[in-house]
Amino acid sequence: MLHTLLIIVHFFCAVGVISLVLLQRGKGADAGAGFGAGASGTVFGARGATTALSRATAVLAGIFMVTSLLLTYVGTHKSEPVNPLEQFSLPAPRSAPQSLTPGAAAPSAPAGPQAPSGAAAPGGPANGAGTSSPK
């Protein structure tokens, strides 16, 4: 939401700065106006437009720079999820693997029914001995 609002303000400031710069007269226009080439009767008067347009350009340029910095800040700092369901969808942190020392026992197998070592399991021969028959 904030990112979208900043983009909109940034866009209008950019368009405003461009249009204000194009409305202003260049420094070389004063020499041409002395010879009758320029229009001396303008909307703002001979000197009034210079200060008003220059100040407006400076203000919009300042806003443009501030929105540029804010967009950079908002873009680099990711926000935390606000929705509680989004918090649960994040991956869980992994636990540290257990290291085995030479004297330590191996980790136990999952609990469940286990067949005795000499007896065959209900699904087939014990210890994966295959289908060979005893002799």
Please state the overall shape, judged from the principal axes of the Cα atoms. Answer: rod-shaped
Distance between the termini: 79 Å
What portion of residues belong to β-strands?
A: under 5%
Largest sheet entry: none
Order of helices and strands: HHHH
> Percent of residues in helical segments?
40-55%
Structural class: mainly alpha
Question: Would you write up a description of this structure?
Answer:
The protein has helices at residues 2-23, 29-34, 48-76, 84-88. The protein contains four helices and no strands. Helix 1 (2-23) packs antiparallel against helix 3. It is rod-shaped, with a radius of gyration of 39 Å. The protein has a domain at 50-76. With 135 residues, it is mainly α.
